[in-house]
Amino acid sequence: MFDQLDALLLARIQFAFTVSFHFIFPAFSIGLASYLAVLEGLWLKTGKQLYLDLFKYWLKIFAIAFAMGVVSGIVMSYQFGTNWSVFSDKAGPVIGPLMAYEVLTAFFLEAGFLGVMLFGMNKVGRKLHFTATLMVALGTFVSAFWILSVNSWMQTPVGHIIGENGQFLPGESWWDIVFNPSFPYRLVHTVMAAYLTTAFVVGGVGAWHLLKDRTNLHARKMFSMAMWMAALVTPLQIFAGDMHGLNTLEHQPQKVMAMEGHFQSHPDGAPLILFGIPDSEEKTVKYAIEIPKASSLILKHDADAPLAGLDTIPDDEEPPVGIVFWSFRIMVGLGFAMLGIGAWSLLARMRGKLYDWKWLHRGAILLAPAGFVAVIAGWITTEVGRQPYVIYGLLRTADAASPLDAPAVGASLLAFVLVYFTVFGVGVWYILRLMKSAPQTGEKGVKRGDKGPIRTAGITPGPTQNPGDPDVLPRNEEEAR
């Protein structure tokens, strides 16, 4: 049934589908790992059981989200070899070492300390357990560091040379590749987006339980912490996004042209098009609602500054304007909605009504998934806006794909869709089920199996006795006494 379709289009759909599914989980786990570190730190500092209860409550959710992120991420590496072998061959000498650094740093940190963080609360000292939590949080950030460095190099490739066989080879300094022109902006913007994504999930869960019981201390603390994050970090994120946009205008001008819907150049100041329907064939935005000269004011800080349009770009180098135009507006619109909730929460806090205003709580529940939608919309803006290149200005997407027939790509795409919606759908359902229950005093946290880890050889020992571990049961009546 895939014979009539284009293999390249199917490969792009497959990668877009799997990366969008995958990106949901790191966007949550990066922020949640740091939130867990804050909760445990507050518990150690104050000794309040409330913080420990919240730590154990969110630790269960983190364990599932982290696992799904790892599993969904493995698929991405395989696709480089199956559907994008030409890209892997040409760019491998540059991106291969960077992705290996992620394994040697982030994965080693997470693998070394995740077990202690999840199961070691009653088995190691408090300081060592807190160190493990910090290391896992650091590992999630380091992972984002390397992956975003790879992606940013594909957006703004520098520091390389091109070999005789057409491969991209590292130049004199790896630091030029790692810290390419767009990387610092993309790193800050993406990591802050992850923190806000987590904050609005935590805030939404807290608001849900506040609507049921306004006296719930756990829900109050969750909601208060989340709203502080929304009020303080959202303005910083908008500022970081603006700086990132100015950097994009400098290095990828046609992406900004598509974001703004500027088919035509504006020598005397460009308007800010709020809404409209881009028409790439007629080179215009129909039914445009715009603010005169506002785009020049934002991008050039001068209302009369000229801005070039897509009429200066060859047609075969234009990105798909409609997708980029609307994904950008979804991201920006949700960003300002988050800002509104943050400002609303500040007003409620000043009036002593943070836990009483039900419409504020309903708004927080409504925006609980907003971070996920915003990061996916931002990712679509970034990736589709780079088209028709996979390595901007140097390697076209059409030239990077594997020589596969459409049925082969289509069959794997269909398999991914079925497996992803089944496996990860169940995982998301279970996370929502955990969130539905309010945190309790004396939360149990993550439980391990009664038999301990399975050995591949020899006798599997029984559970190790540790009086401080509530999950370990006595093996006979004498031990129980």
UniProtKB/TrEMBL annotation:
Region (Disordered): 441-481
Compositional bias annotation for Basic and acidic residues: 444-453, 472-481
Compartments where located: Cell inner membrane; Cell membrane
Keywords: Cell membrane, Electron transport, Heme, Iron, Membrane, Metal-binding, Transmembrane, Transmembrane helix, Transport
Listed GO MF terms: electron transfer activity; heme binding; metal ion binding; oxidoreductase activity, acting on diphenols and related substances as donors, oxygen as acceptor
Membrane-traversing stretches: 15-36, 57-78, 98-121, 128-148, 192-211, 223-240, 323-347, 359-380, 413-432
Alphabetical list of Pfam families matching this protein: Cyt_bd_oxida_I
UniProt key word Cell division: no
Major location (coarse): membrane
Any one GO cellular component localisation term in the record: plasma membrane
Alphabetical GO biological process terms: aerobic electron transport chain
InterPro entries per UniProt: Cyt-d_ubiquinol_oxidase_su_1
Membrane topology (UniProt): Multi-pass membrane protein
UniProt similarity note: Belongs to the cytochrome ubiquinol oxidase subunit 1 family.
Protein name per UniProt: Putative Cytochrome bd2, subunit I
Lineage of producing organism: Bacteria, Pseudomonadati, Pseudomonadota, Alphaproteobacteria, Sphingomonadales
